[in-house]
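Ticket #4471: structure export looks truncated?
Reporter: QA, pipeline team
Priority: medium

Steps to reproduce: submit the single chain below to the structure queue and open the exported record.
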Amino acid sequence: MKKIGAVVLLLLIVGIVAGPAFAQGAAEAGKPPEHVATAIVIAAGFSMAIAAGLCGLGQGKVGAAACEAIARNPGAAGAIRTAMILGLVFIETLVLFTLVMVVLKVGY
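Actual output as written to the record:
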């Protein structure tokens, strides 16, 4: 657990330090330098991969919990199924928001 906390702290520090580094003015108006454009594409790929992977894990947990709940109480299957679908929609919406942000950022 300490390793995960250390990695998250390191990523937070790198994110804070990277902001001022990339805040320098671009040479051409409206178009970032080549190394910044490359970094944006790489970051977009990583963000989409992380979002999709964690979405898959979350949806798997929701599905497993719903199946277990229906197995314990078959009479409440309709309400459980409705709650499960709503939860899956919320999880998938986060990935779609990430996709929209990736398309907006990379499609400059």
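Status: closed, not a bug. The export was complete when the record was re-opened. Leaving a note from the reviewer for reference: The chain is about 85% helix and 0% strand.
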